[in-house]
Amino acid sequence: MSAVDSNKDAFRKKLLEKQKEAKVVRKIVLTVFIILTIVFSGLIGGGYLYIKSSLEPVDPDDQTFKNVTVPIGSSVSAISNILEENGIIKDARVFKYYIKFKNESGFQAGNYQLSKSMTFQDIIESLKQGKLMDEVAFQITIPEGRQLKEIASIVSKKTDFSEELILEKLTNKTFINAMRAKYPDLLTNDIFGKNVNYALEGYLYPATYPFYKKDPTLEEVLEPMIKKMNDEVKKYIPTLQEKKMSVHQFVTMASLIEEEATDQADREKISSVFYNRLDQNMPLQTDPTVLYALGEHKDRVFYKDLEVDSPYNTYKNKGLPPGPIASAGEVSFAAALSPENTDFLYFLATKEGEVIFTKTLDEHNKEKNKHITN
A GO term (biological process) for this protein (predicted)? Predict the structure, then answer.
């Protein structure tokens, strides 16, 4: 072999070695890039979930009020730290940046009563309005599943207003329109549907409401219940828009789930039954709508009751009833948007509170014969 050929051969070997090294380097770079991308995505995703969680109430179901003192001259950072230390918010930094982002100001020093169920906006409004908690004058608790007339009765027992006056206010078009002007995303035109019994039925949120004046006006008593419903429902509006579901349909579906559920019930399964029946163009056939149509509470619905002539009777009418039949809570709202994926078309509540789900009418009737005595 000549010297020239020998040099060429050596050059080719070096070139091949460099190409192999380049491939290895590219593989290493690609692997590192993929790892970094995964780690970075994880950090971004984790950060997003953490911030999203921090923006939500600490415990939506804990309506116990706690005394919180904000000293004179407290900065936003100091207030945020005080709220976190008292368990009212999850993260002081997130709250502080939320205030800056919303350009909120005007917080007042004083002694406040705040709860873990309050949203950021509720807390901000309390601190801005100076709801100083010398003492709560009185509280009104609205349990889940209460109808407008029942709410009027509850409010009446805690105030000097009669049930008749309260119900008259809740059905007064001037008052309703004033609330619509304040909460247009919640109170849409649908509440004035042709067959709707009461425009505000289902639109007063079940919760405990503290009042600091001994003699608030009736508007001051009722509006917080509508505002709280607005605050709860608006969290779901983007999802509702994706699902092409109106707020009124959402609140109505949640009310049906609320009324059918027991303490032991799986609301996501109940929700799935309702949606499955709607998909198959079957009537919902839910007893609480019959009782609502009858205007009374009964432990048992009889066959003659199913014949009541009312748009709310879901045994005689397909689809959702014209409007909500009661005020639903957070768990039922969540179930209305996240039904479990099932094939169930029937469910039966036993006397013990158990709910039995079945796929066919034959299965349903068998369970009915076992658990419901004539």
Answer: peptidoglycan biosynthetic process
